[in-house]
């Protein structure tokens, strides 16, 4: 998923030297359809369009266990069960639509070079869905593009998330075990 388009994703795909099709989702359709809140992801879909395996957040071609699943699937084997994803809360349909709308509006504003307004919309979406790392990363990428291109600074992201979580706990937005649904 790369909301700034295929050109921004190309270096990552080339560096990975993938031998399988790679889809670049610049509109966030996959996060809406599949309901994931973190990246990077690995999603394996068979020739009939059936999702056979998914790992949301933490997927990496640098992890032998992830590579083994992909190779087993490409060889015609069963990829096995998808890893269990912990979800601290579930958004209702109205909240999910509002989050998706704010994400789309933010992407449109960013495409019009109205970055501050885009970040404002993404922050509003994050208030509704505080555990959504996809939203956080869009905000971070808009504010700190050098941390994402030409390479992703994972250490910076981990430190940034830690600081933001500490700030949210101090502000009473989240607790040490995560963020509750704000409107519950």
TrEMBL record:
Protein's UniProt keywords contain Zinc-finger: no
Alphabetical keyword list: TPR repeat
Gene3D superfamilies tied to this protein: Glutaredoxin, Tetratricopeptide repeat domain
SUPFAM superfamilies: Thioredoxin-like (SSF52833), TPR-like (SSF48452)
Intervals holding TPR repeats: 99-132
Identification of the protein by name: Uncharacterized protein
């Amino acid at each position: 998923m790369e909301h700034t388009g295929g050109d921004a994703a190309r270096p990552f795909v080339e560096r990975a030297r993938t031998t399988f099709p790679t889809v670049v989702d610049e509109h966030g359709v996959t996060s809406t359809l599949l309901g994931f809140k973190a990246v990077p992801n690995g999603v394996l879909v068979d020739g009939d369009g059936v999702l056979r395996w998914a790992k949301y957040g933490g997927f990496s071609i640098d992890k032998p266990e992830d590579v083994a699943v992909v190779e087993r699937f490409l060889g015609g084997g069963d990829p096995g069960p998808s890893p269990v994803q912990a979800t601290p809360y579930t958004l209702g349909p109205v909240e999910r639509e509002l989050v998706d709308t704010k994400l789309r509006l933010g992407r449109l504003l960013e495409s019009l070079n109205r970055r501050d307004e885009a970040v404002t919309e993404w922050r509003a979406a994050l208030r509704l869905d505080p555990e959504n790392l996809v939203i956080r990363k869009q905000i971070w990428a808009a504010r700190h593009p050098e941390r994402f291109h030409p390479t992703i600074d994972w250490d910076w992201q981990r430190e940034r998330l830690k600081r933001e979580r500490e700030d949210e706990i101090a502000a009473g937005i989240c607790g040490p075990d995560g963020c509750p649904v704000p409107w519950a």
